[in-house]
Structure formats: C-alpha cells, structure tokens
Amino acid sequence: MATLVSRGISLRGSMSGDIGDYHTAMQLLDRHRTRFDWDKLLGNTYGLDGIADAMAAMRRMDEIKPVIRPA
After folding, report:
1. DSSP states of the chain
2. pTM flag (> 0.70)
3. What distance in Å separates the CA atoms of residue 43 and residue 18, rounded to the nearest whole number?
4. What's the Cα-to-Cα distance from 35 to each of 30, 32, 41, 53, 64, rounded to whole Å?
5. How confident is the model over 25-59, as pLDDT tens digits?
6. How many whole angstroms separate alpha carbon 69 and alpha carbon 53?
C-alpha cells in the first residue's frame, strides 16, 4: 500500500464473468470453432518452467494471452 500511496497510483478492480458465462462462451467457440483462428487468439505455449518468460513477454507487450501448459 505504501508504494501505491507514495507514487500516487490508482488501483481499480473489476469483476470477471460468472463461471456459467465461461461455460456459455466455450460452447459458443466450440459451435463455431471453424470460424476462429486460435493461433491469433492465443499466444505462445509455455511449460511451468517458462512462466517467467511468458510474464516477461507480456511486460514487453510481445504477447497478450500466453498459454501455460502444466505438463
């Protein structure tokens, strides 16, 4: 908090969708899967050992939605 206050940083939160909204969205994407280019929608794929690289790529704005695969 001291960093936020001393630097005059404003923090604004937001609520994500309800879990049911994600289910509906996934059904829509599945129903129309041939219309979406998943390679353009999602970024590169990283393993758990590549999380730091994924975060660095996001900080550099090289990626927006990297995919983390645990195994």
Report:
1. -HHHHHTT----------HHHHHHHHHHHHHTGGG--HHHHS--EEEGGGHHHHHHHHHTTS-SS-EEE--
2. no
3. 24
4. 10, 6, 12, 30, 21
5. 889 888 988 887 777 778 899 999 999 999 999 99
6. 13
